[in-house]
Specification:
This protein is an alpha/beta fold and about 200 residues long. The protein has helices at about 20-30, 90-105, 130-150, 165, 185-205, and strands at about 5-10, 15-20, 30-35, 40-45, 55-60, 65-70, 80-85, 150-155. A hairpin with a 5-residue loop joins strand 1 (about 5-10) and strand 2. The longest helix is centred in the middle third of the chain and has 20 residues, at about 90-105.
């Protein structure tokens, strides 16, 4: 798939994305100039009074490591797409390293730093830093694309799996609460599992 080129007029009004061949013609004729390298955007040297715009649909496929973003026409043609890579694991590793360093300072021969984990309250709507980064990065790209393309609608793919319905398609209502451990106490379950694990260990030994 060849990504189309974003196009804006001299008033920075988003126009319909153009094919790369048409973008080269605009550059060669001097009617447009490069406005941004990524996403590659051209700016016309004049303003259009009544541009003939067709709205695009911005589709988002979120994920824990990658998020897919695409612009689709009314006919279902994908004219622009990207894959956004998140830094969730890097953020988690950096916070873990900072936590170890902070705890190490309390054990060294330095002034005591009092622990503060008991006098902190998380505000309403708090998100983990890795998850917050994922949300904010996606929102940033949505706003950025809205400035360069006439977006009329946004669609997000939400995938949910019902594992119990996969095993029993006719399940409904309170049947979801009656799983394999329904009516079984925790102590009773552990007493049943422990002899089995002991037999396995003796067999391996």
């Amino acid at each position: 798939m060849s990504n189309y080129t974003f196009l804006i007029d001299s008033n920075k009004t988003p126009l319909n994305p153009v094919h790369p061949a048409q973008a080269r013609k605009l550059l060669d004729s001097g009617k447009a100039a490069v406005f941004r390298r990524y996403p590659f955007t051209l700016i016309l040297k004049r303003a259009l009074a009544n541009p003939n715009l067709y709205p695009l649909t911005l589709k988002i496929d979120p994920g824990s490591k990658f998020t897919g973003i695409a612009l689709v026409t009314n006919q279902g043609n994908v004219i622009w797409g990207m894959e956004l890579q998140h830094r969730g694991q890097q953020i988690k590793d950096a916070l873990s390293h900072r936590r170890h360093v902070r705890r190490g300072r309390r054990n060294r021969n330095t002034r005591y730093r009092q622990a503060k984990f008991l006098n902190r309250k998380r505000p309403n709507g708090w998100l983990a830093p890795s998850l917050k980064h994922r949300v904010l990065t996606t929102v940033t790209w949505v706003k950025r694309l809205h400035n360069f393309a006439p977006i009329g609608a946004i669609a997000q793919e939400l995938v949910k799996f019902d594992t119990q319905a996969i095993q029993n398609p006719e399940i409904s209502g309170t049947q979801y609460c009656a799983g394999t451990l329904h009516g079984c106490e925790c102590r009773e379950y552990l007493l049943e599992v422990r002899p089995v694990s002991a037999k396995i260990e003796s067999h391996v030994a």
